[in-house]
Amino acid sequence: MSSIQPSINQIQKKLAISRLGLWLFFASDSFMFGGLLISRFYLLGNQKIELNQFLGLVVTSVLLVSSFFMNRAEVMISRDNKKGFLTSLLITILLGIVFLVGVVGLEWRDAHFGPADGAQGAVFYMMTGMHAFHVLTGIIFLLFVLRNGINGKFNAENHFMVEASANYWHFVDVVWIIFYPALYLMGS
Amino acid sequence: MKRVWSIGIIRGLIFQLFGTGIGVIFFTTIRTILGLGWKTEPTIVVGGLFGAIFFLIGLGAFTDWWRAALGQEVLEPHEAHKFNGIRRYFEFTLDHKVIGIQYGVLSMILLSVGGSLALIFRVELASSGLQILNFVQFNTLVGLHGMVLIISILTGISAVSNYLIPLLIGADDMAFPRLNAFSFWIAIPASLILLSAMFFGGFETGWTAYPPLSVRGPMGIQMFFLGVYFAGWSSILGSLNLITTILKMRSPGMKMFRLPILTWSVLATSIMALTATQLIGLSFQLVMFERLLGMGFFTPSEGGNPVLFQHLFWFYSHPAVYIFILPGLGIISELLPVFVRKPLFGYKWVAMSSLAIALTSFLVWGHHMFTAGIEEYLRVPFMYSTLLVAVPTGVKFFSWVATLWQGKARFPVPMLFTLGAIIVFLMGGLTGPPAGTVSTDLHLHDTYFIVGHFHDTMFGGFVFPIFAAIYYWYPKITGRKLNETLGKIHFYLMTPSFLLMTFGQMRIGLLGMRRRIADYDPNLGFDSTHLLITIGGFLIAISVLVFFVNLIRSAKKGEIAEGNIWNSRSPEWSLLPSPAPINNYENREFRVVGNPYDYGLTGSKYVELIKSEEIKNEVES
């Protein structure tokens, strides 16, 4: 225990601890998103929100594709392919920004109601806003990862920061997969 | 000046002050650029938000994380013990024992603040008519009394679990020491912001902050929301840390069913705090946004529904009461076998009952809303799930009684408080089912009966056990015992006056005294009982004062505690000297070889030291 060089076991133990902490955070955060989802159904029930369907489909596809590239990035760094890792990561970040612009820049401007216009507006802006906030923090994490990746801080053995940001990114993506039908598709 | 500046907490507070100013200026500038005028409410919210973040920056909470994010080397937590002596309690320190004590001191400060608020409005209630307060002041005091004490309880259980869990399971620290320190320090700006609600016009809603009143009332409610929001993050991150620590950092041989029983309750508590706390954060955030941006979540004319708030709010706030009591019940189960020299009866059942309470707690929130106009068909299911909670709680009572049965009991102060806790919690437990049954609740809802019931559960489940825990583990912290005579005065003064207080509350509650009102009709004949309740409250305050005197006096002059003073089997007493060394079990690594509570069984061992040549193998395997 007092040896200077941490043993493989200790590193693995630390990694397992960090992973558990990360997943517990997701569990906690999903309760918050769950609460938003419940608010949507409690207040709006079977109402359909009038939204730009085409735009919704585009941003959803963009986010899904970004998750694919995030996964590519993680796989590549675990195979020590640093160039491929950086390229995929950059694509992920760009797609994330496109998603943000799509939701906050276009959809919010496009919608025919504001946040103060009744329960529909309240629910829609709260859900998309809270999700967009998570996407924004995800992009910030990924920018840190990108910076460290350019400086060559990661390799096949040592890249928990990549793994954590990737999992966070996928988590936010999964949240959107549930939010998208609840906001755009359901109801009549 | 430079020396003052180098003290973390002072730097943090100065930063918070400036941060609040910066937030206000920043927000006003943006509004001016957008061509909007001054608006007080959003401005103070942004100011409060900036203040809390700046507090943490000034303290240095983000320094290491920032470095780590940039890929720089950061010190291993156990190398980072920078401060010694009294100084380390005012700094961003990573040692779980220091953080535990920091939590404990904060909890006791908040306990006195929250208690004093109650004394003020108790004076008002001692006779009918309005004497010293107006309505808004009264309501603000009632609401703050509730929420300040809730944060006191949350920090109190964090104190116990932070200090003890790593010691009990033989870990060298918590799983994430920096996150641990962060969770503590965010509670300081949270408490300050919460208390500042008094100076922004107060609020009228009580601690539950129901809309529509909270949407329309004075803007002190915003500071209330913001404070609770940060305290919620403290609770969430703290419990995340505890779950990871308990699951991943146990000593060799410590299987889940050989954990000290307190660890089980902390695990169950943490599962609830980790998940459910998000919902109170969300519900308060929604009201906040409704006030700030006009989002109509809870206003029926906008298509909203105030009952939604109650659903979200109670989804946390009912589990919350189990979050408050489970560690206390764990302390009772932990101390009882030590003082009666018998095994804990039904260890596995007690452990599982904690998890069962945690699980059931997610299914019972609706019993707070029987009169709120929820759907008729929801009432009976919620009633049954509520009564179901009595089963695992009953398991605990059976275990305590069976543990006491034919034991060789000793009665030092911690044991007195443990027994007091059992009796008081029994009162709280027995008054629960009438409040959870629909037909009786329709009569009891919003009366002083509920107030009496609630105070019984909180005192039995938190206050008495935490005092027991402090009397029991204080020597482990300071190396000196608390004074027994003062302790006995504390106990024998507090218990009867507390029972006087709550029995009085329940009596007038049954007769129809409504809660949360500043005045009542003298013809109801409640004046004398109200006076008794107030006297009871003041006697409790005096007894707690005796306790504080004891705490401070014994730190310097107390009897020196050497060795295993309570003759306990658990590792922190049987293996460690008092006060506990800074690196916990370094060079005293142990292995668990038996059951934790086999008191009186000759030749049985719970822990044994690992010989130094074995250590390497144990760690490797």
Describe the fold and architecture.
The complex is a heterodimer of chains A (188) and B (621). With 188 residues, chain A is mainly alpha-helical. In chain A, 80% of the residues lie in helices and 0% in strands. Chain A contains five helices and no strands. In chain A, helix 1 packs parallel to helix 5, helix 2 runs antiparallel to helix 3 and helix 3 packs antiparallel against helix 4. The longest helix of chain A is centred in the first third of the chain and has 37 residues. The radius of gyration of chain A is 19 Å and the shape is elongated. The mean pLDDT of chain A is 92. Chain B is built from 22 helices and two strands. In chain B, helix 2 runs antiparallel to helix 3 and helix 10 runs parallel beside helix 12. Helices cover 67% and strands 1% of the residues of chain B. Among the domains of chain B are: 74 residues, no CATH class; 165 residues, Cytochrome c oxidase-like, subunit I domain (Cytochrome C Oxidase, Chain A, Up-down Bundle); 31 residues, no CATH class. The mean pLDDT of chain B is 92.
CATH architecture of the domain at 95-259 in chain B: Up-down Bundle
Q: Which structural category fits the helices and strands of chain A?
A: mainly alpha
- Please report the total strand number of chain A as a whole number: 0
Order of helices and strands of chain B: HHHHHHHHHHHHHHHHHHHHHEEH
Largest sheet of chain A: none
Features:
heterodimer, A: 188 residues, mainly alpha, Four Helix Bundle (Hemerythrin (Met), subunit A), 0% strand, elongated, B: 621 residues, Cytochrome C Oxidase, Chain A, 22 helices, 2 strands
